Amino acid sequence: MANTTRAGALSVHGTNPQYLVPTVIRKRVYDTLYWKEHCFALNSATIIDRAVELKYIGGTYANTRPTEFMCLVLKLLQLQPEREIVLEYLRAEEFKYLRALAAFYVRLTFDSLNAYETLEPLLDDYRKLRFRGMDGSYSILTMDEFVDQLLAGEMVCEIQLPRLTQRKVLEDTEGLAPRRSKLGKAMAVMEGLEGR
């Protein structure tokens, strides 16, 4: 498979899925030792082992050196696993970096409605992730912060995200259910108790 998208892969947002990663980063990924040694001959099942071994998330660092996380994102874009497989990655609660990888893939490839429906439940996951910044330093980022960046941001991990339709528009036109946060639910319960 080398550096090509699998045969029969569908275009994502009108382009080859790998082109969602900028050319400079993509070429740097292809040149990394991690890509050549650990991403060779991966499939939808064996990529789980690599994702579980991740120690941090991030895009690039130290003069655009790609992280292992970015290498696996590109590999997922090459493999284009079936939707059910990606959803299983998200359900694997014990592996937070696999979950973060799947969330990033969902945001890159799913349409707006499915992205909101799939990612919003992850806003209730408060586990800590290590994030490697562009300067090479590490910081702590919680899963809900990461997912919020995916849903609200334009650029995450040095990747320009495809545009999402605004949530309010999807609620009005596509029938997306309004989101109620945990705080909103707790306040509704408290108001119900006070009314008694």
TrEMBL record:
Pfam families: PRP38. Required for pre-mRNA splicing. Its main location: nucleus. It comes from Rhodotorula toruloides (Yeast). This is Pre-mRNA-splicing factor 38. It comes from the Eukaryota. One of its GO terms (biological process) is mRNA splicing, via spliceosome. One of its GO terms (cellular component) is spliceosomal complex. Belongs to the PRP38 family. It is found in: Nucleus. Keywords: mRNA processing, mRNA splicing, Nucleus, Spliceosome.
